[in-house]
Design brief:
Helix content is about 5%, strand content about 65%. The protein is mainly beta. The chain has one domain. It has an eight-stranded antiparallel barrel with strand order 2-4-5-8-9-10-11-12. Strand 6 and strand 7 form a beta hairpin. The chain starts with a helix and ends with a strand.
Amino acid sequence: MKHLTLLFFVLIVLSSCSNDDGDSQFSGDLVGAWVGTELTYQGTAESSLQGFPITTNFEGEAYDMTSTITFNESPNTVVSEGAYSLKFTYNFNGVSKTEFIEDVQFLENGTWEVDGNTLIINNNGQESMADILFLTEDKLVVEINQVEETEVDGLTVIATIKSIATFKR
């Protein structure tokens, strides 16, 4: 069970990229400083052990958020500071377990661009994408969807993760 906790921690830390075709509302400018106010995760992790499938559902909710992201222009750089704690609940084999994970970073520093409603962040050659669902002068909501494949203790795990992050000025 200790390895599963480590696995889910790794999956949460990895969940900062993707795209989706959600509805969006744009009337503001992304440039400037944004303070994190809400962050939720949900998804599944799938693997197999000795030929038997294993599926685990999970969800998470951030608390004690001190995360800020600042979008600068000319050049388009993004700076992320602060962290958050995460209440992470997963169901495995009919048993629900809740973990509390401290000091999680939201985003790495890098460069940014917007293509339609997709926010693209590049950090050391690694591209991350998020759909901008809502953008006004004082509120930003992004949705991050991704599929991650990782290996833990010889098991290949495929995680499907959806995150929604809300920021204010």
